[in-house]
Amino acid sequence: MRLEELTLLDFVPNKLVLLPVGSVEQHGPHLPYTCDTIISQYLCTVAERVLKDAVLILPPIYYSCSMEHRDFPGTIYVLPRTFMRYIEDIIMSIIETCSPKAIVIVNGHGGNCEILDLVTRTLNYRNTVKTYHYYVLNERVKRKLRDIVGDIYVEHAGIVETYLMMTISEDLVRFERIVDIVREGSLRLYRTKEISDIGVIGRLSRDLDREKGKQVLEVIVNDFLAQLNRILQGPPRT
């Protein structure tokens, strides 16, 4: 069930509300600016297919914390304090007008993680309706992906996102522009341009295996659905 497709008379409360969050930022020479949003929306689509009417999907939030990519044209970002207040207002509005069972922020952009963790913690201390932050490349997922693609440290437009995009929407990947490259560095200390002049951080290779792409996506989808099922069962009581 998608809010953007409903009318007032179609709306049903008490759903697990999914809020996809991404970014509008450069993803190297081969991936689209809205890569993170496309991935988060895809996960929501899978959840709708599996969980049916148990979920309500909201329209995505595109603009977020992408200051690290500000040296690259086309990157559009907001400051962390702006993003934090904006997300807080949206969540409070969802609680007020949607009467949700719970809310899950489905986040495709690593640069949003610290803020979304803080926002959800603050909101959950204030509200009985719980808000969860699901990050696509969380630590559980990273551990499982090591068996497929090797170690993942900082990743931006690297092998994992390339595998995800080529499996979700192959037409949006510019395969002819992919290069063999390894660029490591901390985005807590440096802007992307200081680490990589082409905007790719981590490891990228022209030797792409479509089967590995499917496996990468399957790991994330399975992890996401497992977390949603836990939330639907209700928070643990002590």
Break the fold down into its secondary structure elements and pairings.
Elements: E1 16-21, H1 35-51, E2 55-57, H2 80-98, E3 102-107, H3 113-126, E4 131-135, H4 139-149, H5 159-168, E5 181-183, H6 192-195, E6 202-204, H7 210-232
Parallel strand pairs: 1-2, 1-3, 3-4
Antiparallel strand pairs: 5-6
How would you describe this protein?
This protein has one domain (3-232): Creatininase (Rossmann fold), CATH 3.40.50.10310. The strands form two sheets. It has a four-stranded parallel β-sheet with strand order 2-1-3-4, sandwiched between helices. A two-stranded antiparallel sheet has the order 5-6. Helices cover 41% and strands 11% of the residues. The chain has 238 residues and is an alpha/beta fold. It has seven helices and six strands, in the order βαβαβαβααβαβα. The longest helix is centred in the last third of the chain and has 23 residues, at 210-232.
- Please give the CATH class: Alpha Beta
CATH topology: Rossmann fold
Average pLDDT score: 95
Q: Please tally the β strands and state the result.
A: 6
Query: What CATH architecture would you give?
Result: 3-Layer(aba) Sandwich
Query: How much helical structure, as a percent, in the residues?
Result: 40-55%
Distance between the termini: 33 Å
Strand content: 5-15%
Radius of gyration: 18 Å
What is the string of helix and strand elements? EHEHEHEHHEHEH
**Main β-sheet, in a few words?**
4 strands, parallel
**Number of spatially distinct domains:** 1
- Provide the spatial order of strands within the biggest beta sheet: 2-1-3-4
Give me the secondary-structure category: alpha/beta
CATH superfamily: Creatininase
Overall shape? globular
